[in-house]
Structures are given as structure tokens and as C-alpha cells.
């Protein structure tokens, strides 16, 4: 009966509803009495049992509720109160449901908090969506491929003057420098050397003083600096009179002492190109420089008003085409590239976070499916109540509203608890990411995250509340009241719906477990890969000598003395020097020319490799094996010795395939400098992280004092110790202080620390994928258990008959377990097919493992089926222990 008709009848005939309740009761009492008579009872017994079962008019009124028409809000409040009472009577159901939802919503909210901060939160600059990042690339036409490479000075000035789509462009570089005087002890910090236009591009005013201006830059930049907020607070205690003071700076690239004037302080939170920059000074940019082979900085720009990113990129492509014609030796296969600054800041973390967001979304779907199954089971216990409500005039909308009100309460409680779990989860994620995720400082619970949680709650209501609500709304009162208990054929049909839900749960869990399994195999392959060196207890200490205090020859003397004293430290078994230790990325890549081959930069002889300047005993200290020829000996490390080089196997195979590289000569100074004779070939080392091998050659670092003066001023000291390498740090600091009190160690790092940083991203993905897979498997197991337990209760009569006819306990247990495995098998098949279809999503995250790896798929299928068998075994044991007489008596 429609709500409008019921409303009109109550207005025109006030007693109509009471008479309908009485008539409906009489009808159902007669039907129940007749059923009891057919069961063999006497008329008196049949009537008495019917009255006991139905409980009288007042009980029906209480069950059915007041069905008089009310305002929508009033009816909703009535249903909410009724839902609270109903859940209070079933605390176990309520607790399990809320916890299941809280896990799903909490995991999704925690990860979305990271996604929101990293991917959706704008950069802390005015109109940051108009900022672009620019660097260069090299493609196959140039003879080698390199996706991201710095920009050179002529390219910067040409593009700045020729483009019309950017209102301003800035050059940005970073370098470690030593604060030699001012306040406190000497300290090595990271400085940003920028064109003064950077502050115009980013549109961030200073907190104190001013930023850099155009007059500060040029070929002879002014000795002025702008401090970061954190450095100002830490080094100067937030002194507001700091502007105008001077501080001593030791730099590798300045041969004169620098006493830079502090002209400004930036506000808290400003940090470009990253938050680790402590101060900014003007970058030396000479418009008269015409050689296009030097590259040492990146660029940032701001789109002009009304210009789109695609328009700016199209203009850049046109400029690159003209450069390739004008400068074919340098710009065939080489040019500028542009992308939004936020995209550059986020980097590969975008794909990582989106993958994890998709995975955790499956966990929420699984949680909702489990709750829907619980609600369907709960609905079985109150079908008679719903039928009576429908018989007494409750419309479908009101019946559905009653169920949705209960679903709303469960989802709201789950969402509230999920928020608390998410708050803790965010802290856990930030501890777990270990440097794998950029911009973590902006991650937190904000309005966007709260809106997401509200959306997750609404989605949960739709997913797990809609199906039970629609089922109850479509109930047929007469059919339901004729059913004999819950063990009817109709109840069996409803069981099939729950089985379908579990099949979907198993399929989703297979998707997640396959992803986690592939990540485990990939991570193991990554860790098992030979890094190219055998030493393990290593300490890396970084030093940077200011050019104003040290001539190149003096730097050689300093580092030789440091090396000699370091070798005398307790537990030190070996020591040497290098410009870049393994696993610590610093841009040391460059082009070189092989003697006797065409010298045109675009010819295949124009090669790209990573080069290292190493000290005496470096290969022995690191445990890098010699494959052919010889290593760099003591004579090779004298300043006046002839130029020789050692190449690794990757370089030999790349540039001398099928040839012997020994005796070949290479030049790294565009033909102006000396040629180095290759005297040995060593094993390849993963300098850029596990699994990343780049062609590399090694030069004796002391020769750099003669051929590359500035490169002799910085080095990493490498110590191979017999125990914990970190114990050598205090003694090393003492040695440096005794040798030069104005110096400081830039950084110390053990090999274990470097390895943790190198594998932070895959470890982060693996940890979360494993957690989500475990949750999915647990939810699927709970779903299987619930369906099998319900099925056993539904078929207790049939099981009793089987036992009475001679079926043993083992036979019954096997039957139930097989049914559970059959249900799980369908889910495994569907999940495997879905995983294979979507395998391309994981390809970019795997190392030395195929996304369709058969071993992983077979292992996952076996594991899921094993869990399903365990989940089905508990209700199967209960079924095997059914007493035939008790089961038949109940039936």
C-alpha cells in the first residue's frame, strides 16, 4: 500500500488502520493454526501454539512499529532509534561489522592522506599550477640515451631570450658548502645557487630583508645570500638583526675567500629545489660563454598569462628544431624538455601511490562485501518480522529505509573508528616510507581527507547496505509466512547470493596476493643481485675543501694525509678515496671520445659514461674484482704520472663490443685535454642503486690536480672496518679537527644506511602490498567461514539424515570442505584471470620478475585454496559432529 493512500485512509477513516491490523492478525493466526493441524496437532494444541508463536496483537504492533504516516525526518529518526535498539541486542554482530569497516575505511583514509598531500596539495608558491620544470634529454640519435640531464649556460640564455610563452625563467643548481665563520662551529650545508629570477618565478616574498635581484647575478655575481627560515633559526637563533651581517663560506668553485652579506630570510616552508637547502646565492652565469658541452643546472619557469602548458611545450619543440639546424654537433638528439613542476617534485612516487591506492581500494570492497554477507545473514533471522511489517502496510521504501538506517549507523561508527585508525596509520606510513615519498611534510588529516572519509562511508552504505535493503523491500508476506523455518528451499536460494559474494571476495584477494607475491619475488631478486663489490662494513665520509683556502696541490696533500691517518684507526682494514661511493647518486656522468673514432659529438663514438676519481687502494678496499689487465697502482696516483684509466665490464661491452679495450685511449675534455690509456677492466658496480648498472670508468684522483683542478677539492673517504663502521666516526671527526679546525665533515653514511635508502621505494611498496594482501586474505577467509557455517546450519537436517544412513564423520567433513574449496576455486580462477589481464600495471615496479610469472600465480592459488580449506574446516568439523537424532528432531 502506498504511503499516500495510507495517509488519506487515516485522515478519512481514523479506525481503518486498527481494523486492518486486527484483520491481518486473524488471517495469519488462521494460517498458522491450519499448518499446525496438518502437523497432527489437536485443534486446541494448534490454536495455542499459533498464539504462542505470534504473541498477540500488542507484540505485532511492537514488531511492526507505528505505521501511521509521519514526516520523512520523523520516520527516519524512528528507524534510527529502532536500528540502535536492534544493534544493542546483537553486540557481537555490531562489533565485528564496525571493526571490519574500520579496517577498510581506515586503511583507505590513511593512504589517501598521503596521496592528498603529495599529489593533490598545491606547491607552496603563488599560482603554482603555472610553474614548469625544464632540463635536457639525449636520445638514440645522439649515440646514447639519457632521460634527464642538466642544462648548459648557452641553452639557458638562448631559451630565455627566444621563448614567448614563459613570463620568466630561472636557473637552479645545488652544492655543498662549508660555513666557516659567523655563528657556531664550521658546518657543511647544502646551498642553492640560482639566477636571481628564481624568486620572481616562485613569487615568494622574504620574511626579512630582500631576495636576490638582477644586479646580484651575472658573470661575477655579488657575494650575497638569502637564508632559509630553518637555518636562520638554528644558526642565528631567529635574530631579527641578521640582515646586513656577513658569514664566511668555503666553496669548491671560488678561489677567493667569500664573506657573503646576508640580505634576506625566507619564510618557513620555503625550500626550492628541496627542503634541505639552507641558503641561496647568485649562480655564476656568463652570457659570453658559448661552449654548449657544459651542463650543470636545471631551470624553472612560469607560464605567461593565458598560455597553456601544451602551448609552451609546442613552442619549445619548435625552438629545438631550429637549434638542431643551427648547432647540429650538439642538438641532434639533444634538447630541452618541460613538465609541470608538481609532476617533477612528485616523480615516480605518483605511480607508486596510485598503485597502492588501487590496492587498498580492493580492501575496502572486501570489507563491504563481508559486511553485506553479515547483513544478509542477519536478515534471515528477521524475515518473519519484515513480512509482518509488510502485511501491516509498510511500503517498500519504509522497509528499505529501516535496513539502510542500520547500515548508516554501522558505516558511521566504522568511519569514526576508521578515522582514528587512519590517524595512527598516517604516522606509521611516514615512518615506513623511509624517504621513498616526497613532500611528506605536507601530509596530514585535512578537510579533503575528511571529505574522502565521508565519501567512503557513503560508498560503504551503498555497497553493503543496498542489497540487503532491496531484498527486504521485495519480501512477499504470504510466501515468507508460509516458509517452515529457515531451512527451506527459499533460504537455500538466498545462500547462493552469499556464496556469490564470497567468490568475489576470493577473486579480489587473489588480485592483491598476486601483486604482493610478485613484489616479494622482485624485492628478493633486487637484494640478491650482485652489487659488484664484496666489502660490507663500509663507512663513507664526505669532504669539501674551499678553493679559497686550498690550491689543488694542497688538496692532494690534505687528502693523502687524511688517508694515512684514517688507515691507522682501530678496526680499519682498508681506506681510500672516491668522488662517489656505490648507491649514492651524484651526477658524475659525462661524454668522452675514443681515440681513432670520428670526433663529431653526434657520431656513435660520442659516448656517455659515469666516471669516478678514486684514490690508491680503492678497488681493494671496496672488493671490486679485476677481470683483465691491472688496477691503478701506487705509481698511477702520483700527480706527475701518465694518464691511465680502468673501465668496468659494462663500459667495455657497451663501447668495445667484441674488442679488447686494453690499450684504447679516451678523452673527457672535448679533445682539449689528455687521453687516458685503458689499463684494466673491473667488474660492474651498481653505483646508482641495486639493479642499476651504468658504464663507468675510473681515473686516479691525484691526477685531477693537474687535469681537473676543481674536482680535487671534494671526495668521499671510504673506510672498510672490521666491525661496526659507525664507531669510526668520532675518531674521524677528531682527525679532521686537528688537521683543519675550519673544516667539517659534510656527511657520514654506512653501507647499510645507503642500501636502506636505495631500496626504500620497493620496500615501501612491498610492505604495504603485503599488509593489504594479508587483510584481503583474512577477510576472504572470514567470508568463507561465515557462508559455510550458515550452510551447515541450513542443512543440519540433511546432514542428520546422511549420518543416520551411515555416513561417517570424515565423509561429512570432506563434503563440506570440498564445497568450500569449490567456491574458493571459482574465485581463484576469476582472480587469476583478472590478475593476468591487469599484469601490465605492475610491470614498471618489478625487477627481474615477469608480471605473469607462473610460479607466483601457482603459489598464490595454492595459498588461497589452503586458507579456504582451513576456513571451511571449522564448520565442517561442526557438521561432522552433528547428532542424527538431534538434527532430525529440530527439523
Please give a quick description of this structure.
This protein has 891 residues and is an alpha+beta fold. The chain is built from 30 helices and 22 strands.
State the helix count: 30
Q: Quick check: average pLDDT? A: 80
Beta-strand content: 15-25%
Low-pLDDT segments, ≥5 res: 6-15, 61-70, 484-490, 600-605
| Strand order in the sheet with the most strands | 3-4-9-6-8-7
Give the class from helix and strand content and strand pairing.
Answer: alpha+beta
Describe the structure.
The chain is an alpha+beta fold. 52% of the residues lie in helices and 16% in strands. The protein is built from 30 helices and 22 strands. The strands form three sheets. The protein has a six-stranded mixed β-barrel with strand order 3-4-9-6-8-7. The protein has a six-stranded mixed barrel with strand order 14-15-20-17-19-18. Strand 1 and strand 2 form a beta hairpin. About 4% of the residues have low confidence.
Amino acid at each position: 500500500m502506498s504511503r499516500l493512500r495510507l495517509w488519506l485512509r487515516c485522515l478519512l477513516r481514523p479506525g481503518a488502520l486498527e481494523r486492518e491490523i486486527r484483520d491481518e492478525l486473524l488471517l495469519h493466526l488462521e494460517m498458522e493454526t491450519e499448518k499446525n493441524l496438518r502437523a497432527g496437532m489437536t485443534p486446541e494444541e494448534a490454536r495455542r501454539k499459533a498464539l504462542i508463536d505470534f504473541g498477540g496483537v500488542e507484540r505485532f504492533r511492537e514488531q511492526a512499529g507505528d505505521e501511521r504516516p509521519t514526516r520523512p525526518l520523523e520516520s527516519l529518526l524512528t528507524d534510527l532509534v529502532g536500528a540502535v535498539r536492534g544493534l544493542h541486542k546483537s553486540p557481537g554482530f555490531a562489533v565485528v561489522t564496525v571493526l571490519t569497516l574500520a579496517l577498510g575505511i581506515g586503511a583507505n583514509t590513511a593512504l589517501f592522506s598521503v596521496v592528498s598531500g603529495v599529489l593533490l596539495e598545491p606547491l607552496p608558491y603563488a599560482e603554482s599550477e603555472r610553474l614548469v620544470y625544464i632540463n635536457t634529454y639525449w636520445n638514440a640519435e645522439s649515440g646514447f640515451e639519457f632521460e634527464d640531464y642538466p642544462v648548459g649556460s648557452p641553452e639557458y640564455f638562448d631559451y630565455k631570450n627566444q621563448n614567448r610563452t614563459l613570463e620568466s625563467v630561472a636557473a637552479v643548481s645545488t652544492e655543498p658548502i662549508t660555513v666557516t665563520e659567523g655563528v657556531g662551529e664550521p658546518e657543511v650545508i647544502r646551498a642553492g645557487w640560482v639566477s636571481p629570477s628564481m624568486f620572481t618565478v616562485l613569487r615568494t616574498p622574504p620574511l626579512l630583508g630582500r631576495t636576490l635581484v638582477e644586479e646580484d647575478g651575472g658573470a661575477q655575481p655579488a657575494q650575497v645570500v638569502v637564508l632559509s627560515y630553518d637555518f636562520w633559526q638554528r644558526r642565528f637563533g631567529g635574530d631579527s638583526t641578521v640582515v646586513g651581517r656577513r658569514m664566511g663560506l668555503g666553496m669548491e668553485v671560488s678561489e677567493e675567500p667569500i664573506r657573503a652579506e646576508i640580505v634576506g630570510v625566507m619564510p618557513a616552508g620555503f625550500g626550492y629545489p628541496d627542503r634541505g637547502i639552507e641558503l641561496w646565492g647568485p649562480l655564476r652565469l656568463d652570457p659570453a660563454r658559448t661552449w654548449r658541452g657544459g651542463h650543470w643546472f636545471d631551470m624553472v619557469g612560469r607560464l605567461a598569462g593565458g598560455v597553456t602548458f601544451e602551448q609552451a611545450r609546442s613552442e619549445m619543440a619548435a625552438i629545438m628544431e631550429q637549434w638542431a639546424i643551427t648547432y647540429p654537433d650538439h642538438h641532434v638528439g639533444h634538447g630541452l624538455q618541460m613538465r609541470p613542476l608538481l609532476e617533477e617534485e612528485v616523480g615516480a612516487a605518483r605511480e607508486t601511490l596510485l598503485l597502492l591506492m588501487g590496492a587498498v581500494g580492493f580492501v575496502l570492497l572486501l570489507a563491504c562485501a563481508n559486511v553485506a554477507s553479515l547483513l544478509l545473514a542477519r536478515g534471515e533471522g528477521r524475515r518473519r518480522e519484515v513480512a509482518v511489517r509488510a502485511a501491516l502496510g509498510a511500503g517498500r521504501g519504509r522497509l528499505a529505509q529501516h535496513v539502510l538506517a542500520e547500515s548508516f549507523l554501522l558505516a558511521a561508527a566504522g568511519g569514526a573508528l576508521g578515522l582514528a585508525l587512519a590517524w595512527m596509520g598516517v604516522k606509521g606510513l611516514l615512518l615506513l616510507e623511509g624517504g621513498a615519498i616526497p613532500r611528506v611534510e605536507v601530509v596530514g588529516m585535512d578537510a579533503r581527507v575528511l571529505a574522502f572519509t565521508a565519501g567512503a562511508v557513503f560508498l560503504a552504505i551503498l555497497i553493503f547496505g543496498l542489497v540487503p535493503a532491496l531484498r527486504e523491500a521485495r519480501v512477499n508476506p504470504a510466501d515468507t509466512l508460509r516458509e517452515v523455518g529457515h531451512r527451506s528451499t527459499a533460504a537455500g536460494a538466498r545462500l547462493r547470493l552469499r556464496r556469490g559474494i564470497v567468490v568475489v571476495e576470493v577473486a579480489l584477494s587473489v588480485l592483491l596476493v598476486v601483486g604482493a607475491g610478485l613484489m616479494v619475488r622482485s624485492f628478493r631478486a633486487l637484494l640478491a643481485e650482485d652489487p659488484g663489490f664484496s666489502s660490507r662494513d663500509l663507512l663513507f665520509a664526505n669532504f669539501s675543501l674551499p678553493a679559497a683556502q686550498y690550491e689543488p696541490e694542497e688538496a692532494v696533500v690534505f687528502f693523502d694525509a687524511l688517508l694515512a691517518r684514517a688507515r691507522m684507526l682501530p678496526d680499519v682494514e682498508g681506506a681510500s678515496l672516491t668522488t662517489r661511493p656505490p648507491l649514492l647518486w651524484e651526477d658524475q656522468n659525462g661524454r668522452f671520445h675514443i681515440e681513432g673514432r670520428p670526433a663529431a659529438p653526434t657520431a656513435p663514438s660520442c659516448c656517455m659514461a659515469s666516471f669516478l676519481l678514486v684514490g690508491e687502494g680503492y678497488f681493494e678496499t671496496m672488493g671490486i674484482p679485476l677481470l683483465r689487465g691491472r688496477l691503478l697502482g701506487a705509481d698511477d696516483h702520483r700527480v706527475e704520472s701518465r694518464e691511465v684509466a680502468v673501465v668496468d665490464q659494462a663500459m667495455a661491452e657497451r663501447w668495445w663490443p667484441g674488442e679488447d679495450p686494453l690499450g684504447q685511449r679516451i678523452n673527457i675534455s672535448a679533445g682539449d685535454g689528455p687521453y687516458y690509456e685503458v689499463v684494466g677492466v673491473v667488474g660492474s658496480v651498481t653505483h646508482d642503486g641495486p639493479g642499476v648498472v651504468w658504464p663507468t670508468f675510473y681515473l686516479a684522483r691525484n691526477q685531477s690536480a693537474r687535469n681537473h683542478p676543481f674536482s680535487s677539492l671534494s671526495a668521499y673517504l671510504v673506510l672498510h672496518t672490521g666491525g661496526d663502521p659507525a664507531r669510526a666516526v668520532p675518531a674521524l671527526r677528531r682527525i679532521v679537527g686537528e688537521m683543519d679546525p675550519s673544516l667539517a665533515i659534510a656527511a657520514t653514511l654506512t653501507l647499510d644506511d645507503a642500501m636502506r635508502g636505495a631500496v626504500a621505494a620497493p620496500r615501501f611498496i612491498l610492505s604495504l602490498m603485503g599488509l593489504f594482501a594479508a587483510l584481503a586474505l583474512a577477510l576472504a577467509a572470514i567470508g568463507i567461514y561465515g557462508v559455510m557455517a550458515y550452510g551447515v546450519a541450513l542443512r543440519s537436517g540433511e546432514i542428520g539424515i546422511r549420518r543416520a544412513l551411515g555416513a561417517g564423520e570424515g565423509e561429512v567433513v570432506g563434503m563440506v570442505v570440498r564445497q568450500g574449496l569449490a567456491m574458493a576455486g571459482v574465485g581463484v580462477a576469476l582472480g587469476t584471470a583478472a590478475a593476468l589481464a591487469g599484469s601490465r600495471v605492475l610491470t614498471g615496479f618489478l625487477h627481474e620478475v615477469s608480471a605473469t610469472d607462473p610460479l607466483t600465480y601457482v603459489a598464490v592459488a595454492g595459498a588461497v585454496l589452503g586458507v579456504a580449506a582451513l576456513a571451511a574446516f571449522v564448520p565442517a568439523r561442526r557438521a561432522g559432529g552433528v547428532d542424527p537424532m538431534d538434527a532430525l528432531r529440530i527439523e
